[in-house]
Amino acid sequence: MNEAYATIVFLFVLFTLLGSSIWIGLALMGVAWVGMELFTVRPAGDAMITTIWTGASSWTLTALPLFIWMGEILYRTRLSQDMFRGLAPWMRWLPGGLLHTNIAGCTIFAAVSGSSAATLTTVGKMSIPELRKRGYPEYMIVGTLAGAATLGLMIPPSLTLIVYGVSINESIIKLFMAGIFPGLVLAALFMSYIVCWHYLRPNERPPPEPSMSLGEMIAESRFLIPVLMLVFAVIGSMYFGWATATEAAAVGVLGSLTLAAFQRSLTTSAFFESLMGATRTSAMIALILMGAAFLSLSMGFTGLPRALAAWIDNMQLSPITLIAALTLFYIVLGMFLDGISSVVLTMAIVEPMIRQAGIDVIWFGIFIVVVVEMAQVTPPIGFNLFVLQGMTRHEIGYISKTAIPMVGLMLLMVVILVAFPELATWLPENIRQ
Amino acid sequence: MRDWSPIMGLPLWVWLFVIPSLIAVLCLIAGPRLERPLRPLWRVLDALYFASGVLAAFFMVTILTLIVAQMVARWTGYALPGTTEFAGYAMAATSFFALCHALTRGAHIRVSIILNANRFLKRWLDVFAVFGAAVIATYFARYAIKANIFSEMLNDRTQGQDQIPEWVVTLFSLPSRALGDWGQAMAESSGELVYTPVWIPQLAMSIGTILLAIALWDTLYRMLVTGVNPIVSEVVE
After folding, report:
1. Touching check for A386 and chain B: CB below 8 Å?
2. Do A65 and B60 touch (CB under 8 A)?
3. Cα nearest neighbour of B132 on chain A
């Protein structure tokens, strides 16, 4: 009974503070404080600072600002032009044509950036005007871009996975490795959607591209080589055990600075913008993590997570039912919160639950990323929708409608993950230590 | 030390919560008339938040430098003890110093669905939210300072392998000494390595949270005086 009371109080205060639009990190602190004062006799303020300080000064977290910075640098280089020019010659032969540059571009940029919004802007900046010029239907341009940009959250480096790994104390490298194959499968699903469109709506196809010789194709794609080298340096150094996640991030920052210097595309002011932008984004995530750390502590003192885990355990749910319920839960949550906030907010409760149910936590990390990816493109709050609205001047409603097939494919991805868990767990079990 | 014991005749919570709220009421009553006299102060504060952001960026570069140094040291067979701890301190400094800068540039995220429902909510729910956030941030800062003071009093040292020269510790403790003693204190402290006292990296937490609280109260006052929220988020172009 006491647990039910605590749950209601926590939820009520949480919804009040979040709903009254207090910044998420501070709102979580407020909820945690109420919980501490009501349900424990411990000094709330002192416990809060101890937890926050330990979390904020942790070594694992240092990968976060560096990966953000790397993405910020590349975002400010000529990479978007180069990517479109380099990919277009190869994609024109596929059924569905240049629409595939949206998917391939997002996949490549996702491998150097951990954020979905940065992926979306970098790829869309170039592909939206180019695809429009060639007469591809608007709903396909916008929809595929909205969906594919969410790969930024899944393919390493991924900010969501770093935050997840830090919250539950799991190896970030393992989580990163786990994200590779599911990310590629999801990209393949998006591409097959474009292929289906090509055959089902032949009247919407734009005129075919002029032909191009193999020599020209290779010449055009030479611009892609530096960024692909960067991808292999960052992911490879982690896979072969040469570097920790933080060290790989440092390699990534130095690599992207070298790449930018080589292209002569990074001015001094752009360099400082990238630095300040990365500082702000990392502070934004840090504040949410601080609030969430205090909230986990507060909920831990009340015994709520353990009680809920035991309750779920008593219901004798099969793991599949539990996953289905959690999918639904995260989709609803994702309608109002961004991915990182929903992950940190729920981990204190969900972690004991899944450990009790015997679900692999690395696998669950990938599952949760797919589910919060959907949240990026579902109204009323979906970050990709806002960014796309700014870029294309379409209504949110229109953009989210174009993205519905993508959400369907992501749901299919959840099913695939449940059916073939090895997709996520095989690679992390086989990395060189 | 009690948490809210009186200072200058008034309990600490009056100073931290009641007086700032009274100023807010004053701003609401006086309205736009206060805009002209306050403008120079706002410019100073804006510069302060920006400076704090620059300091945070400096610490981010420090993280990069430390990690690269550690990698190079490992490849060349040297040992650099304590690098991970120092990187952790730099991480904390990056996060805390950037809090106020990120706030004023609209980088922190909030759930704005109810906020954008109508014009009345857009104004008054926003005022409530900023007020609530300011109260929470002030509470945060108050305990950050308390933890910081306790670390110093208990002479709490790092759990790791990180060491700094003794004179650095003295340098940071100078503000607590009389100005005349500074030279002597520095002359007496040696270059000997000591385990890092926790209160030094924690200074970033105290300063950063104080600035965040100031920035939130400042935002509230500006909103009440001018009628618009000064925080404009820069959505990715």
Report:
1. yes
2. yes
3. A22
Query: Do residue B101 and residue A21 have CB atoms under 8 angstroms apart?
Result: no
A6 touches chain B (CB under 8 A): no
Residue A1 has pLDDT above 60, yes or no: no
What's the angle, vertex CA B235, arms to CA B101 and CA A372, rounded to 5? 100
Q: Measured at the alpha carbon of residue A395, what is the angle toward residues A393 and A400, in degrees to the nearest 5?
A: 115
Concatenating the DSSP letter of every residue in A143-212 gives HHHHHHHTHHHHSSS-HHHHHHHHHHT--HHHHHHHHHHHHHHHHHHHHHHHHHHHHH-GGGPPPPPPP-
* pLDDT of amino acid B4: 82
B194-210 mean pLDDT: 96
Give the three-class secondary structure for B197.
strand
Q: Which helix (H) or strand (E) holds B193?
A: strand B193-195
- Pairwise CB contact (< 8 Å): B110 & A24: yes
> Which residue in B6, B4, B27 sits closest to B219, CA to CA?
B27
pLDDT at A209: 81
**pLDDT tops 60 at residue A11:** yes
Q: What is the ipTM of this complex?
A: 0.95
Check residue A94 and report its DSSP letter. S
Cα B41 to Cα B32: distance, rounded to the nearest angstrom = 15
Q: Which of A14, A17, A22, A376 to mutate to test the interface with B (most CBs of B within 10 A)?
A: A22
In A20-115, which ranges are continuous DSSP H helix?
Answer: 24-39, 44-56, 63-75, 79-91, 100-110
Residues of chain A with pLDDT > 90, as a percent, come to: 61
Query: Structure pTM?
Result: 0.93
CA distance A252 to chain B (A): 11
The total number of residues shown for chain A amounts to 433
* Cα A406 off chain centre by: 15
Closest-CA residue of chain A to B151: A50
Q: CA A12: distance to chain centroid? A: 28
pLDDT category at A395 given cuts 50, 70, 90 is confident
Q: Both ends of chain A: CA-CA distance in Å?
A: 48
CB A212 within 8 A of CB A32: no
Stretch A176-200: mean pLDDT: 96
